[in-house]
Amino acid sequence: MESSASLEIAKHTLLLFGIVLGIGTFSSLLARLVRMPDVAVFLLVGMLIGPGAFGLVDIKADSTINQLILIFGSSYILFDGGASIKLKVLKEVWITIAVIATVGVLITAAITGVAAYYFLGVPAIVALLLGATLASTDPATLVPVFKQVKIKERVAQTVMTESAFNDAMGAIITFTVLGVAMGGGEFSASDALINLLKQSIFGIAIGGVLGYLAAVLISHERFGFLTEFAPVVTLMAVIGAYMGADGLQASGFMAVFVFGIMLGNVESLGFKRSTTESHQLEDFVMTTALIMRMFIFILLGTQVDFALMNQYLYAGVAVVVVFMLVARPVTVFLCALPDRRAKWSLKEMLFMCWTRETGVIPGALAGMLVGMKAPGAQIIASVTFIAILMTILLQATTTKWLARKLDLLIEE
Fold first, then answer.
1. ∠ CA 210-174-245 to the nearest 5 degrees?
2. CA separation (Å) from 88 to 29, 149, 154?
3. CB of 306 within 8 A of CB of 51?
C-alpha cells in the first residue's frame, strides 16, 4: 500500500511537471509575440493556473520539490549570468561594477528597508530582510532584453555584469540578515562584515577552482577528454560548486556565479573551443536556463496569496515606488559618479538608474524564505511579487524607448 501511495505521488508530480513545461512553452511563445520578458508572462500564467484561480498546479512553497527547484534553478541561472560576462569590459568599468554590486546592494537594501518599515509597519529586522531580498537585479531578464535591444556596449555590459554579480551579494546579505532574524541575536556590523567576506572569498575560490578545472576538462587540447560531455559537466559543476561552498558555510550562489565567469571566458584563460562545441554548449545552457525560469516563476505565481497581496497592496506599491525611484538612483549616483576612470555621462547614469529589473533571484529568495518560515516571509513574498511585476512591466518594456531618448541606442 505504501509503495502504491509513493507511485501515485510520483505520477502526480510528473503530471505537474508536464503541465508546467507545456504551459511554460506556450507562454514563452506568447511573450515573444507580444515582445514582453518571458518571466512576466510566466508569473501571470502561474497566477492563473494556481490554487487561487484554475487550480491546475499546487506545489507548496515549503515542499521538498519546490525547494529543490528554487536552489538548483537559482544556481543554474546565476551560472548562466556569470557565463555572459566578458572580462574585457572589466578593464574599463570594474570599479563601478565592484562598488555598485557590493556597497550598492547595501545602500539599496537600507533605503528599501526604511521604506518598508515606514509603509508596512513591520519590525525593523523584517523590513531589512525585505530590503535585502529586493536589493539585487536580474540577469535572467536583463540579458535577453539587451540581446534584443542594442545599447551602447559598455553600458549594457556594465548593467548585465552588475546584475550577475549583485545577485550573489544580495543572496549573501539576505541570509546574513535571516540568521539574525531567526537566531534572536543582536546585529553586529563587524560580525556581519566578516561573515560576508568569508562567504564571498570562499565562494569565489571554490567557483574559480571548479571553473578552471571544468575549462581544462572540456577545452584543453591534451586533457579535454570530456569535451563531448560539456553540458553534463556544467550540471555537475554547478551542483558541486553550490554544495561545496554551502558545506564550507560559504556562498553557494557566489561559487556558481564565478564558475560561470570562468567557463564563459575560456579563451581568456588560454584554452580553445571550436565554434560547433561553443554553440552546442550555449544552446544547452540557454535551454536549461529557460526551463529553470519557467519552473521558478510559474511556481512563484501559483503560490501568490491574493488575500495577502490585497492586504498589503498599497503599502507594497509605495515601497516599490521608493525602491525604483529613490533607492536605485541614489545607489547609481553614489557608486558610479566617483569612478573617474569610467567617466560616466549623465545620460548613461540615468539609463542605469531606470534599468534594474527584479526577477529570478529575488523571487527565488522570497520563495526560500516562505519555505523556511522566516519572520514576515509571506509579506516579503507578496511585496517581492509586486516588485517583480512592476519593474518588469514598467522598466523592461521601456528600455528601448529610454535608450533612444538618451541617445544610447545603437540603430541597426
1. 20
2. 34, 21, 10
3. no
Closest CA to 309 of 383, 376, 198: 383
Q: Is 72 helix (H, G, I), strand (E, B) or coil?
A: helix
Range of the domain at 85: 62-405
User: Which tens digits make up the pLDDT trace of 172-225?
Assistant: 788 878 877 776 555 566 666 677 777 778 888 888 888 888 888 887 666 667
Q: State pTM to two decimals.
A: 0.79
Spatial CA neighbour of 24 closest among 71, 60, 57, 59: 57
d(CA 111, CA 97): 20
Beta bridge partners of 151: 409
Task: For the chain, give the longest Cα–Cα distance.
Answer: 71
**Domain CATH number, residue 75:** 1.20.1530.20
CA distances from 159 to 164, 232, 380 (A): 9, 29, 25
Q: Do residues 119 and 355 make contact, with C-beta atoms less than 8 angstroms apart?
A: no
Residue 45 maps to a domain: no
Backbone angles phi, psi at 239, to 5 degrees: -65, -45
SS3 163: helix
**Is position 12 within any domain?**
no
Secondary structure in 3-state letters for 324-392? HHHHHHHHHHHHHCCCCCCCCCHHHHHHHHHCCCCCHHHHHHHHHHHHCCCCCHHHHHHHHHHHHHHHH
Residue 362: closest CA among 166, 222, 204: 166
